[in-house]
Design a protein that fits this description.
The chain is an alpha/beta fold and 378 residues long. It is built from eleven helices and 16 strands. It has three domains: 1-37 and 67-100, no CATH class; 39-63 and 102-182, Immunoglobulin-like (Sandwich), CATH 2.60.40.3770; 187-366, Rossmann fold, CATH 3.40.50.1000. It is 31% helix and 25% strand. The strands form two sheets. Strands 1, 2, 3, 4, 5, 6, 7, 8, 9 and 10 form a ten-stranded mixed β-sheet that branches. The protein has a six-stranded parallel β-sheet with strand order 13-12-11-14-15-16, with helices on one face. It starts with a helix and ends in a 12-residue tail after the last strand. Mean pLDDT is 86; it is low at 1-6, 11-36 and 275-279.
Length: 378
């Protein structure tokens, strides 16, 4: 618990210090670009669904300025409290990037689809059609709408045969790229948890081990899960997790890498605010380690929202036994009768022997049991 508490204190420190330097936008390049004045935009990969003759695309983004100097300062301070190897130091600094970043509020981000023959600019709007700005935490949510005819034009321009479209920020002082999958009303979709389902996190082992794996260790794919996902060649994939959105970049880069080999998908991570002037920030930080119901509610909300947009699609739900995935899946199955084709649970708590009723009616993937206070990496 002391490790997690210390990390939370570092997040708070990071949010209060001034900006010092900017990082390159190239995800494969980890160095300071002292000559750049661009604010970086993370567009979280999302989907589009049909509403009449239009595609509706719900989108969330985060605007910030990376602070490499602050990252290194925090790492140096933390190393005085905990000895770690040069490799762990490098990993820790890379995982801190979004937490140490300077969130940019009141921003309006404009973007265009790549290879758009019309070069039409888009921006996020609220339900009343008004442009929305980023909040105090640099985040904004909204939607864009494009006609079916316009979508077909963009798909052809990008030579996309799987529904994916890419786009780039073009507003002043912004840089960033995003992607959207236009998902047909009928077909197969997979909604997948991440931690201990496709990536080893060892959450049941306790907060100390889970925090160490999150901040200091190379990510490791769950054995055999990549092969399972490769079977769903034509399915739409949605990754849903209680992991804070600040881990989006390193997490997505790992999962979609050649090493891990998981397919492209949309990402729906948990909001953890950083602005110290907001009471909700303190609640979010506390809830990271103290309230499992927050993760339960987040997952249930995201699963429900996705399925509601696709009443004609079939769904496979994939999770693990370490938290509340079996309970969430049953609730989803009751709420959307006939749409859940299969519920798959990677059993890391040996419920297949200890609590069989909990996994009844689900496809169980046996896995190494995670015990409290023990890590397979030690």
């Amino acid at each position: 618990m002391r490790v997690v508490t210390t990390v939370l204190c570092i997040f708070l420190l990071a949010a209060t210090l001034p900006n010092r330097g900017i990082m390159s936008d190239d995800k494969n390049t980890r160095f300071l670009d002292l000559f750049s004045d661009k604010e970086r935009v993370d567009f979280y990969p999302t989907y589009g669904y049909m509403d009449g003759q239009n595609w509706v695309i719900p989108l969330k983004l985060y605007v910030y300025e990376p602070r490499g100097t602050l990252e290194r300062t925090i790492v140096s301070l933390f190393q005085r409290l905990r000895d770690f190897t040069p490799e762990e130091r490098e990993i820790f600094q890379s995982r801190l990037q979004a937490f140490a970043a300077d969130s940019e509020s009141r921003e309006i981000v404009e973007f265009i689809f790549d290879r758009d023959p019309s070069s039409e600019m888009y921006l996020l709007r609220d339900s009343d059609g008004n442009p929305v700005r980023t909040n105090l935490n640099g985040v904004k949510e909204g939607e864009i709408r494009i006609s079916a005819e316009r979508a077909a034009e963009l798909l052809e321009a990008q030579n996309s045969g799987d529904g994916w479209l890419t786009f780039s920020a073009v507003s002043d002082e912004h840089t960033g790229r995003g992607k959207i999958r236009l998902t047909e009303p009928e077909g197969l979709s997979v909604i997948s948890d991440i931690d201990d389902t496709i990536k080893i996190s060892e959450l049941p082992a306790g907060s100390r081990i889970a925090a160490r794996n999150a901040f200091f260790k190379e990510y490791a794919a769950a054995p055999g899960m990549t092969d399972l996902y490769k079977q769903w060649t034509h399915a739409a994939i949605h990754y849903v997790s209680g992991t804070p959105k600040q881990f989006y970049r390193p997490l997505s880069e790992f999962l979609l890498s050649d090493e891990a080999g998981f397919p492209q998908g949309t990402f729906h991570l948990r909001d953890v605010r950083k602005n110290l002037l907001s009471l909700t920030t303190w609640r979010d930080l506390e809830n990271i380690i103290s309230d499992e119901n927050v993760t339960y509610n987040h997952k249930l909300e995201q699963f429900t929202g996705i399925i509601q947009h696709f009443p004609g699609r079939q769904f496979i739900l994939v999770g693990d036994s370490g938290q509340h995935d079996p309970e969430i899946f049953r609730e989803i199955d009751d709420q959307f009768p006939g749409q859940v084709q299969e519920m798959i649970i990677r059993d890391i708590t040996n419920d297949r022997e200890r609590n069989r009723q909990r996994l009844e009616g689900m496809t169980v993937i046996p896995a190494k049991t995670v015990e409290a206070g023990l890590s397979q990496f030690e």
